[in-house]
Amino acid sequence: MKSVKFKIILSGIFLFSCIALLAQQTNYPENLYIYPYLQYATPTSIIIKWETKIQVKGSVIYSEDDSFDNTVAEASPVKIHEIKLKNLKPATKYYYKVSFEDTVLEKASFTTAPVPGTSNWRMVAYGDNRTFPETHRRIVSQILKLDPSMVIHSGDLVSDGNNYEEWKIEYFDPMKGLSENITVFPSLGNHERNSPYYYEYMSLPDENGESFYSFDYGNAHFIALNSNAMEAPFELNSVQTQWLIKDLKEHADAEWKIAFFHHPLFRCQPTRGIEPQRWVWQEIFDEYGVDLVVNGHDHYYQRTYAIGNYQGKPSRGIYHIISGGGGANNYPIMPKVHAASRRSIHHITVLDFLGDRIIGRAIDDEGNVFDAFVIDKKAENSPEEFISFEMFKIERDLSEAIINLPLTQLEKTINVDQSIEIENPFLHPVLMTFYWMPSGNWTTNPPATNILQPGQTIKIDFSADSEKNNVYPPPKAILHFQTPKGKMAFKNNKVEFFPVKIGQKKKVKPLIVKKFPVIDGDISEANWDKNAILDQFNDVQGDPPVQKTEIVVSMNKKRSKLFIAGKVEASEEYSNRGTTKRDDRFIRRDEQVKIHIGVGTEVYTYIINPKGALLDTQDITIFWNSNAEIWNSTATAAARTNQDGWQFEVEIPLDELNIMNGKTTINFSRRDVENNTEYEYSLTYGKSQFDHRVPMYSSDWFAVDRFADLEL
Ligand SMILES: [Fe+2]
Questions:
Q1: DSSP 120-172
Q2: What is the whole-number distance in angstroms between the Cα of residue 158 and the centre of ligand 1?
Q3: How far apart are CA 690 and CA 683, in angstroms?
Q4: What CATH number labels 122-152+206-381?
Q5: What is the pLDDT of residue 15?
Q6: 128: CA distance to ligand 1 center in Å?
């Protein structure tokens, strides 16, 4: 009985919400396009904006009580209205009504910003509401329950900033109830596309054309940056970053300094790399005492430990919060040493300022608190709660150094004997220990410890030996940093890295076939003899693969056509989906095998997916850039699923490859979508944008010197 009653109540609430939502969306007074919304609240002024369908003169009446005895009217007719109310009292609630033609809108209210220095107030941060107005609406109703003084938005207000309708549907309409009564301070997301609509709809401090700006609110100074690197350069000498430094110097006295922008500097998402602003802005935030950074772009919640430069003693550091749960689809997350809390969920973050403390809570779209924290101005972080920024630089520089090392060729045995030198980023002495983890048949050099003085480079000598048949996985080395006395210095005190890169001279000699196979996905014509199947692929990291890929290569008697047949292990889900169109760039999302044929330094690539779709290209930008010129060969392909995954066959005419122009090489790489990794036949040790391992490898499409020799 109880559950039935509960259900009835629930459906009642649901129905009521739907009606309420409908009413909000349809009950628009004639000629009103976007309801009034507040902009740029200060202690003594505020901006009220709205949009009408026609050009018309508008006005605002307002007062502290119900008298509405103050009026500001526009001088000329417009569609996007903007009225600034001045000479207001700080921290004071005013009522206002907007009117145009014969329409007088229902009354709304705003509260001016508190007296500068006010130490007790509340704000909400969120972002990435784009594309899903209904979820955005739920998020807005959670914000309304908290009744904050103001809201900051970390960007991606709409799916496509150049689409006029989306501003209403995705951003403004779901904001009804909030935006008339509470000021929202936005920063630019990538989805705004730097569109003129953003600048028309927003009225922000405009010394930098509203692209980036700062303002004071209560006892805090806020800086909104533009992290869209293409539109707003961020390098140290850029206009934006020089302005940032100047602004932080001018507001050195602010009790709290908070920066917000779209792209996060420290993320916990497996499928995105490092934003380049990390290397510039984090150091500036640290030097000039920024307390908190709020970002979006990644659709989940993450709160970091304090991140900063190691001071040789406990210190404060900067907290970075990703609060990109405003409505768009949530993203996967993974453990990271810097992430103190993380959850892939629609949410907002509320911050209560209480003098020298900020009490924060992360709240989901149903109102449940799932993270709570205190940022205490007076507290210094223990090593267990402090992340050394220098360690990120060590990871970056170690990766780069290893990427640049030559491969050690696999003969009967393998003997690695190399050394790496990188810059020491620490400005205080640290105790550094280098050691290897025990690994299979590998014999490695003994541990080494030394006190690293500031300015002294980090030098690591390493040697590792193994037998030919036992080289995978390659051994793992560790750099461990402590205080000179051997105590814990910071939480991220170890770097695991993989300095061994094994090169293997491989060759592919196609079998000559009398009758050339029919390209129909039936691969039984290929010779699945053990000797004809190419060696097992490896994960690009040099690890054994999670899933198997088998390839057989043949050629016709005239040596004019290559025939490649493959069997790919994959789960049913991934084997059954993918594009069916030829040369569809969305093939990058699919399970796939890439065939790379090198002729001299030229590389021809053929990508095939479980649906038999083929994309042939000589240019990796085809994958990402829909305007890139595509190369069309006369190659044909077919595929079908089987009980272990999928199988394919591809016919490649050789006469269009200019094979007389140089040495021919071949490589195969296979994208395993389920495990988010790539396998290769010949390991190329290309550089990846990800940072989950040191170094992180990807398949290099153009490393012809690391491909197998193709003997035609
Ligand atoms: Fe984004």
A1: EEEEEEE---TT-HHHHHHHHHHHHHH--SEEEE-S--SS-TT-HHHIIIIII
A2: 10
A3: 18
A4: 3.60.21.10
A5: 47
A6: 7
Question: How far is ligand 1, taken at its centre, from the CA of residue 177, in Å?
Answer: 25
CB 626, CB 585: distance < 8 Å: yes
Instruction: Give pLDDT, residue 4.
Output: 45
Amino acid symbol at 185? F
Residue ranges with strand state E in 309-429: 319-323, 339-343, 347-354, 357-364, 369-376, 386-388, 408-409, 413-422
- 164 alpha carbon to ligand 1 midpoint, in Å? 18
Expressed in angstroms and rounded, the spacing between residue 220 Cα and the centre of ligand 1 is: 26
Instruction: Say what the pLDDT of residue 219 is.
Output: 97
Give yes or no for a contact between 58 and 32, defined as CB atoms under 8 angstroms apart. Answer: no
Q: Quote the ligand 1 centre to 655 CA distance (angstroms).
A: 45
602-608 and 561-569 beta bridge pairing = unpaired
Distance 191 CA to ligand 1 centre (A): 6
Ligand 1 centroid to residue 290 C-alpha, Å: 23
Helix/strand/coil for 8: helix
Q: How far is the CA of 113 from the centre of ligand 1 (A)?
A: 29
Q: How far is the CA of 301 from the centre of ligand 1 (A)?
A: 14
Task: Say which CATH class 390-503 falls into.
Answer: mainly beta
pTM for this entry: 0.91
Distance 228 CA to ligand 1 centre (A): 9
Q: What is the pLDDT of residue 78?
A: 98
Pairing mode of beta strands 150-153, 70-73: unpaired
pLDDT confidence of residue 26: 52
Please check whether residue 66 is in contact with residue 75, taking contact to mean a CB–CB distance below 8 angstroms.
Answer: no
The 3-state DSSP class for residue 221 equals strand
Kindly give the distance from the C-alpha atom of residue 231 to the centroid of ligand 1, in angstroms, as a whole number.
Answer: 14
For residue 488, how far is the Cα from the chain centroid?
31
Query: Splitting the chain (712 residues) into consecutive groups of 10 residues, what average pLDDT does each group show?
Result: 45 48 63 97 98 98 96 98 98 98 96 96 98 97 98 98 98 97 98 98 95 98 97 97 98 98 97 96 98 98 98 94 97 97 98 97 98 95 96 98 94 91 98 94 94 97 87 93 98 97 93 91 91 93 91 94 96 95 93 96 96 93 80 94 97 91 94 92 94 94 96 92
Domain 507-710 annotated CATH 3.30.2170.10: no
pLDDT of residue 621: 84
Ligand 1 centre distance from Cα of residue 169 (Å): 18
Q: How far is the CA of 364 from the centre of ligand 1 (A)?
A: 20
Between the CA of 329 and the centroid of ligand 1 the distance, in Å, is 11
In the chain, where are the structural domains located?
122-152+206-381, 390-503, 507-710
Distance of CA 591 to CAs 149, 360, 495, 608, Å? 48, 42, 32, 8
Q: Is 390-503 in the same CATH topology as 122-152+206-381?
A: no
